[in-house]
Amino acid sequence: MTKPVYSIVVPVFNEEACVETFYKAIVPVMEQTGEPFEVIYVNDGSRDKTEELVTAICEKDERIRLISFSRNFGQQAAIHCGLAESKGDAVIPIDVDLQDPPETILKMIEKWKEGYEIVHGRRAKRKGETKFKKWTSTLFLKIIKKLTGLSIPQNVGEFKLFDRKAVDAYLDMPEHKRYLRGMTAWIGFKQTEVEFIREARVAGNTKYSLKKLVKLAEDGIVSNSDYPLTLAMKFGIFLGVLSVLCFGLFPLLLIWDIHVGLTAYLFPAMSLLTAGLLISHGLTNLYLSRVYEEVKNRPRYIVGKRVN
Prior knowledge:
Helix content: 40-55%
Largest sheet: 8 strands, mixed
Oligomer: single chain
Shape: elongated
Number of strands: 8
Distance between the termini: 10 Å
Order of helices and strands: EHEHEHEHEHEHHEHHHE
C-alpha cells in the first residue's frame, strides 16, 4: 500500500450500528482528495459485533486498518493509539457516529495546505445534545482556562486535523492520563478553526456517560494545573483568620456579660481545623494518586489484534 497522506483515526466502542455507515460515508469524501489515505478503526474493547464488522471491511479494502484493544481503555487511549499508529502527514480523529460530518475534513485539509498545523472543527450548532450538556461544557472550559491558563477554543472536541509535527509533539509527552484538547492547546503551533453543524447520531446511543465526562474533566484540570494544590493553603489561611476572629469574639461576649462554657471555645476551633485537614488530605491524595499512576508506568493500552 502507498504511504498515506491522510490518516483518519476512528475510536469505536460498541458501535456495530455505525461502523459500516461511517465507512460508506468517509471513503467517498477522502477519495475526493485524489491522494492516498488510511482509516484506522481503534476498537476500544467492544463487546458487540464491532470488531467482526470492521474486520470484514478491512478484508475488502486495504486502506482500512483495525486495532483492537484487549479490553476497554477509554476514548483518550484509543485516540492516542490511533495517532501513534498513523502514517499520514495529516491525522484526523473523528467519531464514528457521523455527528462530525466527514465533508468538513476537506475544509480542514484546505487550511492545512495553507500552512496551519492544527485545524479544529468548531461546532456552530449542536443537534441532539441537551442544554445541560452544552452549558456544563461551556462552564468547564471557562474553569479550565482560569485554572490552567490554557486557551481551549469553545465548542471544539476531538475532531481536528493534526500536522505530523503536531502529532509527534503530542506523542512526545509521556504522561498517562491524557486530555487531548488541553494538550493540543499546550503544544502550540499555528492553529485555526473551521465551522460545521454537528448532527445527531446516525445510530446507537452515546457512550459518554456523565461519569465519564466528569472523569474527563478531572483529567483536564489535574493534568494541566497545580491550582487545586494551592486551595489547601488558601483554605488553611481562611480557617486561621476565621479562628482568630472567633476567639476574638469571646472577650467581647464577656464584656457584654454573656458567659459561654469551655465547649464553645473548643467546638468551632476543632471543627474548622478538622475541615481544613480533611480538605488538605483529600487534595494531596488526588495528586498522590496521579503520581501513583505515572510511577507504575503501565502501557496506556494493550493491543489484542491487528488487521491490515
